[in-house]
Amino acid sequence: VSQNTLTDKTVLITGASSGIGWATALEMAPFRPKLAIAARRADKLAELAQALGPDTMILTCDVSDPAQGRAAIEEVVNRWGRLDFLINNAGIMATTQFHLGPAAEIDQVMRTNYVGAANLIHAALPHMLKQKDGHIVNVASLAGLMGVPYMAAYCASKWALVGLTEALRREYYDSGVTFTAFCPGSVDTPMTEASLRDKTLRMLTRPKTAEQVARKIIHCCLNRTPEYIYGETPGWLAKAIKLVPRFADWATANVVHRVHPLAKSAGARH
Ligand SMILES: NC(=O)c1ccc[n+]([C@@H]2O[C@H](COP(=O)([O-])OP(=O)(O)OC[C@H]3O[C@@H](n4cnc5c(N)ncnc54)[C@H](OP(=O)(O)O)[C@@H]3O)[C@@H](O)[C@H]2O)c1
Fold this sequence. Notes:
Number of helices: 10
Mean pLDDT: 95
Order of helices and strands: EHEHEHEHEHEEHEHEHHH
Low-confidence stretches: none
Structural class: alpha/beta
Number of strands: 9
Helix content: 40-55%
Bound molecules: NADP nicotinamide-adenine-dinucleotide phosphate
């Protein structure tokens, strides 16, 4: 495997118009990669490109439409001849008590967070395999390793992404193409702005900054780290608790139902 550098490498970051994706592009810039930034909001991407420099490639696309996501990969390869790093970071949250949320959200969350990423990988792999080189970071979540109340649809999409990543790591072992399942806990970004206004939740989850998370993503690119868990719950605990489901349900329900704003609101009681 050739690289432990980002210099002159081609990098596509989805969800770059905000939060973690935005910070990752900015934190990567000093390494001098060729950056392609993707999201739906063209104005935000243009603003970021201003800060990154004239060679930045702007890809306005909706990853929940597989054709648009796949076209983004082809645009990068057509222009730069190769794709070295794919950061699948675009994502949406759904915070609700499951039966009270809109049914359409179940589909939309899965199509953005899982189907979108899976299609970008499907389109990128033939190029990376031909290169015998490439690394893909899938930005999942701690919620992709454990069931988190009031985030069920989101959790499901991130479990899917973690499962996909783990299977692909094994399927393409020794091909030169490597994968990171990247699992952050709470991060202070526009996605969590509303929920982190709740002081108890903020205190309990002690959110990281987008820049801290971005630096860990870069670490994973440089080291081809298979799995990176970075949050309020240690990775070993997120995994160990699965061995004792009855206890895990009791403990989680007791903590979360006491502190979660949705559980405290009358509408969410059951
Ligand atoms: N914040 C956290 O606490 C946290 C924790 C764990 C994991 N994560 C994950 O980290 C990733 C980044 O989240 P963030 O916290 O940085 O949230 P954010 O600030 O809301 O950013 C989300 C990004 O995804 C893009 N996006 C959403 N839907 C898209 C679509 N259909 N097509 C293309 N781009 C789309 C958004 O851009 P447009 O709106 O312009 O399309 C935006 O750039 C997500 O996958 C999230 O699930 C976040």
